[in-house]
């Protein structure tokens, strides 16, 4: 049975493994091995995940299926890019589902939990960056009502890639 909960420090190791595995599965074919290794080393270590879990302006949500980690999302509450009109918006920094749970409604449940958590923090806008060459993710976010408001560079190793910035005004 699926459950969604906030991560705690004891989850850092499992989260680190899922984060790197998910990122590699999604983007390895489009990047060099060196850039992937650099990005993963600089983004998904257990120490980095511990710091992000403990950060007061972040929230990490985990989806578990009988204690097995199925998906995760990380929210940031401390900044928004210039193209997002609401300067007090919250970012959905990461949202990844492990392969075994693709197509089972996990991403939709996790997204709803993210939006609920953002509203609970008193935010009125959610934003995120999505790689311009990830049409599946773009379509997923658009189904929730996200609209394009800008772009930014997202470095994967030495490769600055273009992310489309999407924003959503939340309804209480």
From TrEMBL:
One of its GO terms (molecular function) is acyltransferase activity, transferring groups other than amino-acyl groups. Keywords: Acyltransferase, Transferase. The keyword rRNA-binding does not apply. Residues 2-171 form the N-acetyltransferase domain. PROSITE patterns: GNAT. It comes from the Bacteria. This is GNAT family N-acetyltransferase. The lineage of its organism: Bacteria, Pseudomonadati, Pseudomonadota, Betaproteobacteria, Burkholderiales.
